[in-house]
Amino acid sequence: MKTDHTTRKEILRxxxxxxLLKVTTQTIKNYIYSGKLNALKTPGGHHRIRRSxxxxxxxxxxxxxxxxxxxxxxxxxxxxxxxxxxxxxIKALLKALDARDAITSGHSxxxxxxxxxxxxxxxxxxxxxxxxxxxxxxxxxxxxxxxEYILGKPGKLTEQELFMVQxxxxxxxxxxxxxxxxxxxxxxxxxxxxxxxxxxxxDGLAGYDIPLASRIISAAETYDVLTAGIPYxxxxxxxxxxxxxxxxxxxxxxxxxxxxxxxxxx
Length: 266
Fold this sequence. Notes:
Elements: H1 2-8, E1 11-13, H2 14-21, H3 25-33, E2 40-41, E3 47-50, H4 51-56, H5 72-98, H6 107-121, H7 126-137, H8 148-151, H9 159-165, H10 168-176, H11 186-190, H12 212-228, H13 238-248, H14 255-265
């Protein structure tokens, strides 16, 4: 039987290791790429995994052919470690992306921090908060497809330039759609520039038809732009920014989210 043969092999293909551990081949590759699992590489570029290396990280016990007995907490910790390595990589890439924009460097990181605090205040679960954080970190990733000249322009954009900038949520959606574990945040990325009054983009959604994560990101992004400063606008104090958010309640921003945001960040 094929499975019996696999459990006795000392050197495994990626697919065989995934079959033995009852996970996807992508999970095995993620452990290899993050450095948590050692692997050999064949001249053809394929990974080969030693059974002893699987034992070393606790996936299987020493008894031949017997699968490991990691408890739920240990498996969850492994998952968190892997996810954290993804998030650290995303943060490093975003520093380079933010540097291309007129908005002060660190914008995406700050927006993510604000969103995480709001999600906590709203009672989001750990997974909901993590998805909100990822969406906030990546909300402007579509700007990678926009000219640096446009992003750094210190003044009013032409109609054509504004049209290009307003494509970034859709560009971002296309980028995120290629990454399996980021699929839950696609809608939040696409709709973070919708307005509560329905006059936003790209789809003109209004009110509670706009995903909650998008409404939170919109408030956090607006606050950061007001307080961090951009070349052609004055930097506002925290209280002045709160007043601006309140003035935008019901038209640009969700009034409930504004109230929650102000109470959280105050």
